[in-house]
Amino acid sequence: MLLAWRLSKQMTEIIMKKLATIALALGLSASTAFAGGYTAPVVEAEPVVVKSASSSTPAIVIPALLLVALAVAASDSSSDSSSSSTN
User: Is the pTM of the predicted complex or chain greater than 0.70?
Assistant: First the structure.
């Protein structure tokens, strides 16, 4: 019985040494995995191309054309009335 106890004590020591070695190896490998610490990923924004505004925008051209048409219509109506009064 004493011999069986010594064998079981030796086996227990061997198992404990193996477990300690495995725990040490896992602990060292885990510390190297986090050696640099966490850094957030850098997301670069895509460049935005801004078109320069042209000198003649449709917002200005359309009212200008309407004003010209109104001026032409006003001048035609005034010339029509003057020609009818002379007859």
Answer: no
